[in-house]
Amino acid sequence: MTNIHHQRRVRTLADLAELAGVSPGTVSRALADKSLVNAATRERIKALAAEHGFRPNQMASRLRTRRTGVIGIVVPLGHERRQHLSDPFFMAMLGPLADALTENGYDVMLSRVIPDAADWLERIVDSGMLDGVLLIGQSDEHEAIERVAARYRPLVAWGSVQPGQIHCAVGTDNFAGGRLMGERLMAGGHRRIAFLGELRAPEIAQRFHGLSAALADAGAPPALQLDTPLASDGMERHIAAHLERLGDTIDGIAAASDVIALTTMRVLADRQRRVPEDVAVVGYDDLPLASQSVPRITTVRQDTVAGARAMVDALFARIGGADAPPVVMAPILCPRDSG
Predict the structure, then answer these.
(1) What mean pLDDT is predicted for residues 200-205?
(2) Nearest 5°: CA angle at 64, between 63 and 66?
(3) Global pTM exceeds 0.70
(4) Which residues have a Cβ under 8 Å from the Cβ of 196 and sit 6 or more positions away?
(5) What whole-number distance in Å separates Cα of residue 154 and Cα of residue 303?
(6) Bridge partner list, 131
(7) What's the rounded mean pLDDT across residues 297-304?
C-alpha cells in the first residue's frame, strides 16, 4: 500500500524531495545530472524518480530558464533553389549535427529556406521557438547572415571565413582545396582544365580561385569556368552541353562537388571518353559515393564529422555567453583513380 500512496503523491519536485529527504533544488540538480550533487545521491534520486514514474515538467523548466530546448538547422538556398535536403552533402552534415545536438538533450527543427524576403533569417531567430541556429552553408546570403549575427549570438554557419566577418563560421579552407585540385591535375600531365561549378556561393568561388592560382603559378593556361548547378535537377543536362561544346579541347576537369564529378564521369562514359586516360576528373567533399563509384573519385576531403562537432561546440559556447572563434580546417587530397 505504501508504494501506491507514494506514487499518487509524487507529482512535483517537492514531493520527490520529501520522499528522498533532500531539498527540491538537490532533486532538480540530480535529475539534470549536475555534478554538484554527489554520484550516489544522484543515482538514488533518479531511481526513486523512475520507481514513482516521476518526469520533471520540461516545459516549466524551459520557461524558467527562458530556453526552448530546440536548435534550428537551416539550409539557405539563395544561389541554388532547386537543391534538396536529400543532397548527399547536406545529409553528410545533418547526421553528425543532429547526433551532437540530441546527445546534449536538444531537439532539432530542420528548415530548407528559399530566401525570398530580405528578413528571412530575422524571422527564424526572432520566432521565439529556438535557442540557437546552425546554418548549413552561407549560400549567397552573406549580408543577411552578417546583419543578424551583429545582434544574435547563438548563430553558427558552415562555410567560408572572410576578412572582418562578424558571424562565426566553421568550414574548410576552400582556396587551399582548389589549389590541391589544380596541383593534382597538373601532376598527372593535364593542362587544359575546366572548372564545373557556379561562383555565386563563396565556397565554390574560393575553390575556383585556388585552382586558378595553382595553374597560374605553374604557368598553365587559365581554367575555363563553366556554370554547373549543384542541384541534381538539370546538372547532367548542363554538363552534357558543356562537354558537347568543348569536344576534345580539355583533358582535366575540376568539379565543384563529388556529385558533379560523378555526373561528369557518367556523361564522359556516354561519349566514350575514358576517365582518367582521356579526361581526368577531380571532385570535392569526399562523400561516401566518391569511394564507391567506378572509377573511384580522386577528391578533396572536407571533414564533415569534425566540422559538425566544431559547429555544435561553438554554438553551445555562444548560448552560454562565451565567444567562439571561427574554425578553418585544412582540406585533404584523397588520391584515387579518376584523376
Answers:
(1) 90
(2) 60
(3) yes
(4) 226, 228, 239, 242, 253, 254, 255, 256, 260, 264
(5) 23
(6) none
(7) 97
